[in-house]
Amino acid sequence: MSGFPIPRTESTHHRLYEFAKSAIIKIFAHPYATVCDLYCGGGVDLEKWDAAQITHYIGIDVASSGISEVKETWESLKKNYTADFFQADPCSENFETQLQEKANQADLVCCLQNLQLCFETEESARKLLHNVASLLKPGGYFFGITPDSSTIWAKYQKNVEAYHNRSGSMKPNIVPNCIRSESYMITFEVEEEKFPLFGKKYQLKFAHDISAETHCLVHFPSLIRLAREAGLEYVEIQNLTEFYDDNRTQFAGMIMNAGLNLVDPRGRLLPRSYDVLGLYTTFIFQKPDPDVAPPLTTPLLQHDGYTIDESEWQAPEWQGTLWRDDEKNAHPEQQPPPPPPPLGLGKISEQKGILGPGPADLRFSEAL
């Protein structure tokens, strides 16, 4: 585990985030893999990929400065894997045209930082997922980390409820737009009680950070729907606190090395660490390989071209999960078993759908 050095800074947030990236790379990366890293600017994860013994790295970033920086870092580190670097916008450009020679070459595509930026519009999210599918080999995985909109929206709704309980009917049209904790502050740009499926912006500022980051909430059912359109099947979306608990035996030593006062002596997350790590989630999709195993079964989600109101988010159960006709009508004995999960991927067979304490509409009623 010492092969994943984690920068020691004063920021709990940065230590935990670097740990999370190290952990998910350790699970998915395997020797001789070809990896495509979206939004790779800075090259902060090059050491992690080297420790995973990959054979080839494809770095893509929207900024020319980011590409220059990661290329210089790779050259200075003299890593054991070969590398290509491209300046391109995964949310707006067509990789099938621009990167034809890289089509179907990547065993893994990861987006460890900026998936949420692609949810400003439905078209940008759709373009990203089609580009991912064009890069992946059949059987390859698309994975990464993004802020957990389920957790964030639940915290926001609790603020709204508490405000109305205090103010009664005196100010019915004013909605608080800020979430505060000891470690961070989240501010929504527009005060509202509805969740647009795309373009819901907020500012996230951690303690000790100079400036705030601008993000968009990722609506997970829309992510799954658009992924299926692109030919990617849903595997798992899991809050990082549960991801850590599922893999604590393997990763407790790593997080202890990330800095002091993040976990207790038994490796359990301390409250502050739990609060920060709980703001994020993993996401995992697979490009099915019809020659190896049948595709995973993803539910067909209701059309997302509308705005969800507060009552829909607070429904006790998500009713009406739709399945493909061939899956719904097939006899159980005719359905082949699902393919096994990748090594070390927690408890996918027992996974609970889209996790986190958020609204019921962000969760499935049954494990897939």
Q: What key phrases describe this protein's structure?
A:
Rossmann fold, alpha/beta, 7-stranded mixed β-sheet, 368 residues, disordered C terminus, 4-stranded antiparallel β-sheet, disordered N terminus
What does this structure look like?
With 368 residues, the chain is of the alpha/beta class. It folds into 2 domains: 12-149 and 217-362, Vaccinia Virus protein VP39 (Rossmann fold, 3-Layer(aba) Sandwich); 152-213, no CATH class. 32% of the residues lie in helices and 18% in strands. Helix 5 crosses helix 7 and helix 8 (240-246) crosses helix 9. The longest helix is centred in the middle third of the chain and has 19 residues, at 149-167. The radius of gyration is 21 Å and the shape is globular.
Average pLDDT for all residues: 75
What is the approximate shape? globular
* Domains, number: 2
- Number of helical runs? 12
Question: What's the helix and strand layout?
Answer:
Blueprint: H1 12-28, E1 34-38, H2 46-51, E2 56-61, H3 64-77, E3 82-87, H4 95-98, E4 106-111, H5 122-135, E5 136-147, H6 149-167, E6 178-180, E7 184-188, E8 201-206, E9 213-216, H7 220-230, E10 233-239, H8 240-246, H9 248-257, H10 271-277, E11 280-286, H11 310-313, H12 325-329
Parallel strand pairs: 1-2, 1-4, 2-3, 4-5
Antiparallel strand pairs: 5-11, 6-7, 7-8, 8-9, 10-11
Helix pairs in contact: 5-7, 8-9
EC number: 2.1.1.56
InterPro entries: mRNA_G-N7_MeTrfase_dom, RG7MT1, SAM-dependent_MTases_sf
Protein name: mRNA cap guanine-N(7) methyltransferase 2
